[in-house]
Amino acid sequence: MTTLLPTTTAGSLPKPSWLAQPETLWSPWKLEGDELVAGKQDALRLAVKDQRQAGIDILGDGEQTRQHFVTTFIEHLDGVDFEKRETVRIRNRYDASVPTVVGAVSRPKSVFVDDARFLRAQTDQPIKWTLPGPMTMIDTLYDAHYRSREKLAWEFARILNEEARELQAVGVDIIQFDEPAFNVFFNEANDWGIAALERAAEGMTAETAVHICYGYGIKANTDWKKTLGSEWRQYEETFPNLQRSKIDIISLECQNSRVPMDLIELVRGKKVMVGAIDVATDTIETPEQVAETLRNALRFVDADKLLPATNCGMAPLSRDVARGKLQALSAGAEIVRREILG
Ligand SMILES: [Zn+2]
């Protein structure tokens, strides 16, 4: 990639209203059967068009083919019973009724590879594909089989690696693993979570990224953030080990969050996806606000390693707001590009 400051998104974009209820997480599909398959592809095409029109450099599918960033992947695996549900605490924050691991987990066939091939056919620009990370996956399940969070995480890491290798083979340039759990379970992340993530990324020639955010779209996450005080220093716990890991890109949130920018220094040498777009407000950033966030980040990350991005997925926003934010991201990056190139 030769573009300076290549822009990208964390992952999701709003879905069209004819595909799923807008501005909601877990929204049920409005189509079924062959119509749903075609509808998802049309939505993916529109997501690509919106990104291209806004001038985004590394394109994603806007997660148009999945209902949830973790569950949709798990639904395709054997060993998990979605009828058998137990209530567990998610990321130490809220209780949810979750599916049960009832046997050895495996991936009978690829999950997103057809969708990724479809995305590849839409553009010659670099593409990024998102998968859940192993630690975040285990945190949304009740495990009645392995009875060990670590053991289940390693099994998921193996399965994720199978999927990642196939995604790479159909032309995905960057595989991103979403690991918000790294901001909660520091000890586990450092003991085995980061190692499991490296297992998921093992043997990749595509670049690999890890997205670590504070969570959006549900009240429990908003309430939790209120308890974190004036400085959010959670990244401090895992960044030193991530800096030493084989993961190429670290994705974090910087816009309107209380994360001290200098924590990026802890992953010096890695590429950094700097969240310069707040996904928790309908207010569209000005290009100058985006530029200011990027300038701040440039004090701690070299210009050739900075990827301007969104804080997190934009699924809960309206399509107009999301488009406006993509344009602001692109325009803000362009301001800073010109400053750097003189
Ligand atoms: Zn996120």
Automatic annotation (TrEMBL):
Q: Name one GO molecular function term.
A: 5-methyltetrahydropteroyltriglutamate-homocysteine S-methyltransferase activity
- Name of the protein described by the UniProt record: Methionine synthase (B12-independent)
| Swiss-Prot/TrEMBL keywords | Metal-binding, Zinc
Which species is the source of this protein? Sphingomonas aurantiaca
Task: Output the lineage of the source organism.
Answer: Bacteria, Pseudomonadati, Pseudomonadota, Alphaproteobacteria, Sphingomonadales
InterPro entries attached to this UniProt entry: Met_Synth_C/arc, Met_Synthase_cat, UROD/MetE-like_sf
User: What domain of life does the UniProt record list for this protein's source?
Assistant: Bacteria
Q: Name one Pfam family in it.
A: Meth_synt_2
Domain spans labelled Cobalamin-independent methionine synthase MetE C-terminal/archaeal: 5-330
Q: What cofactor is this protein dependent on?
A: Zn(2+)
UniProt record, GO biological process: methionine biosynthetic process
